[in-house]
Amino acid sequence: MKRNRRSFIKASVLGGAAAASGALTASAVAGDTDGKRHGPLNLLILGGTGFIGPHMVREALRRGHSVTLFNRGRTNSELFPDLETIKGDRGSDLEGLKDRRWDAVIDNSGYVPRHVQNSAELLAGAVGHYLFISTISVYASFEQPLDENSPLGTLEDETVEEVTGETYGPLKALCEKRAASAMGSDRLTVLRPTYICGPGDHTDRFSYWPLRASKGGSMLWPGTPQHTTQIIDVRDLANFTIDCVERKTAGIYNTVTPKDSYNFGQLLEDSLVLTGAELDPVWMNEAFIEEHEIFGSLPVWHPNSGDYASISKVSGSRARAAGLHNRPVRETIRDLLRWWETLPEERTATIRAGLAPEREAELIEMLKAS
Ligand SMILES: NC(=O)c1ccc[n+]([C@@H]2O[C@H](COP(=O)([O-])OP(=O)(O)OC[C@H]3O[C@@H](n4cnc5c(N)ncnc54)[C@H](OP(=O)(O)O)[C@@H]3O)[C@@H](O)[C@H]2O)c1
User: Residue whose CA is closest, atom 2 of ligand 1?
Assistant: First the structure.
């Protein structure tokens, strides 16, 4: 049971989720920012056409930078016809990156340490700065509140390359370490986002709550209204990413909404205000959730006790001190609802996360009968 839960959470933070002795320690690299803006930059993005990448590309272009993409040309390849895309596979073909120069590289697509090592070694002499998108799943445990110095997960066998719910976090921790070895900590930024949400989120995890609320009727809500959650708006992450490469801000930064700043009661209220739905919220307590094993269908919610009690208690204060701006969550919800409206019916017919309608109705019946 514990294993399954861990797998689920690791997998769910994946997006699809070094120890103090590691080469990259937060204290060694934090806060090295010159605070200055720079002129137009030549940026390379490893990835760039999934969910977070396009937001970064657009923000970089908006600020007058030029952008080159590196990917296999499989995902949303029509998105940026005017940008140079170097085709290649991180696992086997970095040829196209040779003999080129960029001011900075943003690595969105590193999951396998060998891939990150290869690209960072190849680019170490060709870029001024390397920004690696990591994840809060790197942390070894979520039982206690976390900051950037909390211990990281490790793998018994560091040659493993298969990305699973179990290995995702420790692999990303190793990726961070390999990037630091190749680049040096003073030219590396590591961002560790929690659940990334907003327009374009293909997982529907956070989106489930307002989208389900918009349908009205009796709706199950987990825990209590006071139960907190943490997310990061994809646009806030993109803005901070570009800030970091402009300012050459080195260091490790959790990128999350402020701890304890947002709870499920507010999520319900924001959803109602924004959708105008008529809703009868039915709150389930943790014992009921446990008994019916529905934890996996309650995205961005985690029980107050057990292995993941503090997954929504991640300190983001270092990133905020370095310039991360978190927009109000209501704005994230407003904009993801607007984006949802633009999607074709085949996409919106089923919400990809949360409780299936039949299961929800069944559980509500049980609650009412008890
Ligand atoms: N979603 C979340 O809640 C969440 C939370 C924490 C951290 N993260 C992190 O966010 C990042 C993922 O974001 P995203 O998918 O939205 O990024 P993205 O940059 O928007 O998209 C993924 C890109 O990687 C390229 N790619 C995939 N495999 C490749 C390969 N073998 N070689 C070359 N290019 C490859 C894809 O293009 P092709 O397929 O055409 O190659 C695509 O352009 C990951 O680092 C993940 O760990 C996500």
Answer: 15
Residue 146 is classified by DSSP as B
Which of 44, 83, 89, 108 best tests ligand 1's pocket when mutated (most atoms within 8 Å of CB)? Answer: 108
Residue 294 Cα to ligand 1 midpoint, Å, equals 28
Question: Does the model's pTM come out above 0.90?
Answer: yes
CA of 291 to the centre of ligand 1 (A): 36
* Alpha carbon distance 245, 27 (integer Å): 19
**How much distance in Å is there from the Cα of 246 to the middle of ligand 1?**
22
What token pair was written down for 304? 């107050």
Spell out the domains of the chain, with CATH numbers in brackets: 2-194+232-255 (3.40.50.720), 205-231+259-312+328-369 (3.90.25.10)
pLDDT digits (tens, 9 = 90+) for 268-324: 999 999 999 999 999 999 999 999 999 999 999 999 988 999 999 999 999 999 999
For residue 315, with 0-12 CB atoms within 10 Å meaning exposed, 13-18 middle and 19 or more buried, which class applies? middle
The most distant pair of C-alpha atoms in the chain lies apart, rounded to whole Å, by 70
Mutate to test the pocket of ligand 1, among 12, 13, 44, 52 (most ligand atoms within 8 A of CB): 52
Q: What is the rounded distance in angstroms from the CA atom of residue 137 to the CA atom of residue 167?
A: 10
CB-based contacts of 184: which residues, under 8 Å, 6+ apart? Answer: none
